[in-house]
Amino acid sequence: MDEILNVSKAARRIRKAVKHQERIVLFSDSDMDGISSILILEEAIEHIGGKVDHMAFSNRERDGYGMALSVLESFREYAPALLVLTDLGIGNREEIRQAREMGFDVIVIDHHEISGDLPPANIIVNPKQPKDPYVFKTLAACGLAMKVAERVLGSKATKSDKDCIVELAVLGTVADLMPLEQDNREIVERGLLALCSSSRAGILELRSRHNFCLDPMSTENLDYPISILGARDRGEDIPGGYYILRATTQQEAKNTILRLERARKTKDREVQKVATLLKERIGTSSPALIFEEVKVSDFVLLGSIANILVREYDVPVFLHKRKAGASVGSTRAPKSFHVVKAMAKCKDLLSAFGGHPGAAGFRVENKNIEKFRECLYSQCI
Ligand SMILES: [Mn+2]
């Protein structure tokens, strides 16, 4: 069976970087899929005797969608180096062009929809790219990172090495709501078993607080660990989920878990409150599309609020938080509506956008908001 395009090539390039002691920089989205992806690669690199020199996670509220130029600028001191982007990057044409100019070799491991030309990265792993022969297209980024990491480890990888990878991949795959079929089904089956026999301190501590290894094992049991590990950690450069999964003792993991449990409760309250306010605002009208400015403490709450509205009204939902100059937004939609294609039709009005057919993000200058709204509406009537 065909392999996903460039999986082996990416693995060879990473091995080469380790062998020649090149500097390695990893950059990822900060959600569960991104955290899983970065950990899978970092641990594979360490396993073959290498090290990651710098690692960072995107801050969507501050930097928008993908890799911002300001973020790239903060990597400059590491060039020349191998820069690996996971769970983002497929839309960062200009940023990757500049990264190459700075002296980075760039690998993009991303599963987001491709609109327009591919970025000028050295190696791109994304089954959605035109020439990719692989039949199954809907792996999470961590599923792709897993395939690369398994190649990095090579034939010497033991079952326990592979378990360490797949227990991370199941978390990102389930959190990213990937269809649980074919490759993903295998990741889930193996991953649940691996999680439930894991010796990772953070996993043991999570299990001791809330046993998610019930019989029968099911992805629904992962709601608790994912809600903690995938919590967007406001103001933190490195998300707490990363620290929990890297912790060497349960006590070390516990401190972060307690902090994130508190944060989750506060977040849930705010999500419910704002969703209720919006429902009151929309009332009993039956809108073709919901497009609203929302006041929230944190941009990352928009996705959860939009999910509630999609369930309630069954129409595409675009929510944005206004900031000086530009607004950042999050969108969710029922299956019948492709949000990335819809935004692509309005792309001249947007400074950035990208994501999946049913869940994506955007950044729009405040002066263009009304036109953007009209552009979307015109596609819904
Ligand atoms: Mn993802």
Distance between the termini: 44 Å
Distinct ligand kinds: manganese (II) ion
Task: Give average pLDDT, whole number.
Answer: 94
Total count of strands: 10
CATH architecture of the largest domain: Alpha-Beta Complex
Taking strands numbered 1, 2, ... along the chain, how are they ordered across the largest sheet? 2-1-3-4-5
- List low-pLDDT spans: none
The residue fraction in helices comes out at: 40-55%
Q: How large a portion of the residues is in β-strands, by DSSP E?
A: 5-15%
Number of helices: 15
Largest sheet: 5 strands, parallel
- Indicate the radius of gyration in whole angstroms: 20 Å
CATH structural fold name of the largest domain: inorganic pyrophosphatase (n-terminal core)
CATH class of the largest domain: Alpha Beta
Cα shape: globular
Can you walk through the features of this model?
By secondary structure, the chain is α/β, with parallel strands linked by helices. A five-stranded parallel beta sheet has the order 2-1-3-4-5, sandwiched between helices. Strands 6-7-8-10-9 form a five-stranded mixed beta sheet. It is globular, with a radius of gyration of 20 Å. 47% of the residues lie in helices and 14% in strands. Manganese (II) ion binds next to loops.
